[in-house]
Amino acid sequence: MSKYTLGIDFGTLSGRVLLVDIENGREAASEVLEYPHAVIEHELCGKPLERGSAFQNPQDYLDVIYKAVPKLIEAAAIEPTDIVGIGIDFTSSTILPVKKDGTPLCFLPEFCNEPQAYVKLWKHHAAEPQAERITSLLEEKDPERLARYGGRISSEWMFPKILETLEKAPEVYFADDRFIEAGDWIVWQLTGVESRCVSHAGFKALWDSNTGYPTNGFWRELDPRLNGIIGTKIPFEVVPSGARVGGISANVSKRTGLVAGTAVSSAFIDAHASLPACKITDGGKLLLIVGTSTAHIILSNVESSVSGICGVVDGGVIPGKFAYEAGQSAVGDIFDWFVKKCVPADYKAEAEVRGIGIHKLLREKARTYKPGESGLLALDWWNGNRSILQDSSLSGMILGLTLTTRPEEIYRALLEATAFGTLRIIDNFETNGVMIDKLYAAGGIAVKDDFMMQIYADVTGRPIYIAASTQSGALGSAIAGAVAAGAYPDFATAAEAMGGLSDIRYDPIAENQAIYAKLYAEYKRLYEYFGLENDVMKRLKNI
């Protein structure tokens, strides 16, 4: 009889539960729950939120566990005893303040109307001033650590968000016992055991395998009220990827049908979980996880300082390997913005009459244009620039619009802009000594969108291999669950058995590649000018 693991992938808008056969990686069943509260960006608790805010309600995450998991077990018609392990991945850095028993502060009556007591989602950018202050102090006190994070701290990470909480709602800061990544919190809810995974700690909380977190002396100098945060609100211990944190608790067993004691792995950052799902456990292979944003992950046997990346962490994804991460803060979100805000009524009517989605219609129309034919060029900074400029205050731009420009031309230019952004990241890796032999892509867009992937192959000038699974994050988490359960001795063995690539491969078209090389040269000029030379985007925001 088959044995299974569960991979639970907590994304920006939904949680996905995947049941996977541990022998061959066959995806036996899945269940998706859309978060009822979604992303809270404009108003929370009756209070208007400042620009750049992105909060969530942790009850949505619990709903995934207590509603989607039992539903999946029932629909799959399997015995819960056949589920041997569970893995979790989560968007990051997504943090929340909790009490020592794990209760979120926003669940308490005294804090239910305070926005700072809620979850701060990964794309919460309201902590940019705090990130700048942490960067400045690291430049002075710990430049080696700062170099491992590309020379700048992002407002998307844990400590800027914590400092923001302290400064805007000190009552929340002093009432909470822990600040914790949502992925680690879910593992805690499942097992009753608090843990901090190397993935979240290393990439989003400045933890290093040799020196740990920045010292309490560092945080005290930043703000005296932060004295003692390490060891109290942020515990010292960090657990490796694939480690068995604990087993399903009796309470969770009763509410879900899972068997008490079933192994639960340490959490993953959502993007990182896709590496084992694509059988990537060694170096030279850059994986693009393409979704609302894009993460760029590569493994290596050596550690190098790479400017403008999100970090390099020893064992950050696979034990024994250095993991490097870069990223683009918006990709799918840009296309979604365009569809919701800029598509004319007659296009929407055409899509409705034909019974297709508006994205599919725009792609059909955009395919009829050759590279460069529209005369348009865009910068992909609709949600700031994560890598390599690390500046969330930057904004998007489209150059070359005329009175004859059509929606599909703009749509194509936006697709191309995200490809140019990826090539800029690839160039930066290789300039700093991290060489890339092959490109891989995972995520819903990568698996479903042949048009976009061909553009990426043409722009980067490299073949692109595609993940077999449309749910690579959940599959990677299921692989971690198998390692934690002892079904496999390590990630390499588990990934070889359970991971997979599709038969689809996108090779660059020489004619298109030549044109895109010219466009990319212009993209880089705009990139440097608006990113480094002229602060007009920031001045416009200030006005």
Can you tag this structure with a few keywords?
alpha+beta, single chain, 543 residues, 22 strands
What is this structure's SSE topology?
Blueprint: E1 4-10, E2 14-21, E3 27-34, E4 43-44, E5 47-48, E6 55-56, H1 59-76, E7 83-90, E8 95-98, E9 119-120, H2 128-141, H3 143-148, H4 158-168, H5 170-175, E10 178-181, H6 182-191, H7 198-204, H8 216-222, E11 244-247, H9 250-256, E12 263-265, E13 268-269, H10 274-277, E14 285-290, E15 294-300, E16 311-314, E17 322-328, H11 332-341, H12 345-354, H13 358-366, E18 377-379, E19 397-399, H14 407-431, E20 438-442, H15 444-448, H16 450-460, E21 464-467, H17 472-484, H18 491-498, E22 501-506, H19 510-533, H20 536-542
Parallel strand pairs: 1-7, 7-12, 7-13, 14-20, 20-21
Antiparallel strand pairs: 1-2, 2-3, 4-5, 6-9, 8-10, 11-12, 14-15, 15-17, 16-17, 18-19, 21-22
What does this structure look like?
This protein has 543 residues and is an alpha+beta fold. Helices cover 39% and strands 19% of the residues. It is built from 20 helices and 22 strands. The strands form six sheets. Strands 1, 2, 3, 7, 11, 12 and 13 form a seven-stranded mixed sheet that branches. The protein has a seven-stranded mixed sheet with strand order 16-17-15-14-20-21-22, sandwiched between helices. A hairpin with a 2-residue loop joins strand 4 and strand 5 (47-48). The longest helix is centred in the C-terminal third of the chain and has 25 residues, at 407-431. The protein is globular, with a radius of gyration of 22 Å. The protein starts with a strand and ends with a helix. The model has no long low-confidence stretch (mean pLDDT 96).
